[in-house]
Design the sequence.
């Protein structure tokens, strides 16, 4: 669920919106390197751009801090798939299923 301003910015100028989002996330991480929401956003950003190794670094930091962070195990599984590690991807999927209980 993206805020309305984000949807409008993307529709108007997607590249500028992406740059603004990246800078916003970077600012939050400079202020607090353990900001889990910013780490999730950064990891997703990297994953969507084919930088699964960088995404995994973000997702690892989240799971070490809060293994119950919503959706992180699914994202981590996707990143492991992207780097060709199906074994760890499957473990993340199992963990994701267990975190719902």
Sequence:
């Amino acid at each position: 669920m993206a805020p309305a301003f984000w949807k409008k910015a993307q529709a108007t100028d997607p590249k500028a919106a992406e740059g603004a989002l990246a800078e916003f996330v970077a600012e939050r991480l400079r202020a607090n390197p353990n900001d889990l929401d910013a780490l999730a956003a950064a990891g997703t950003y990297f994953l969507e751009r084919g930088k699964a190794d960088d995404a995994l670094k973000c997702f690892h930091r989240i799971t070490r801090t809060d293994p119950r962070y919503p959706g992180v195990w699914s994202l981590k599984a996707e990143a492991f798939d992207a780097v060709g590690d199906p074994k760890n991807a499957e473990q993340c999927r199992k963990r994701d299923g267990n975190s719902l209980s």
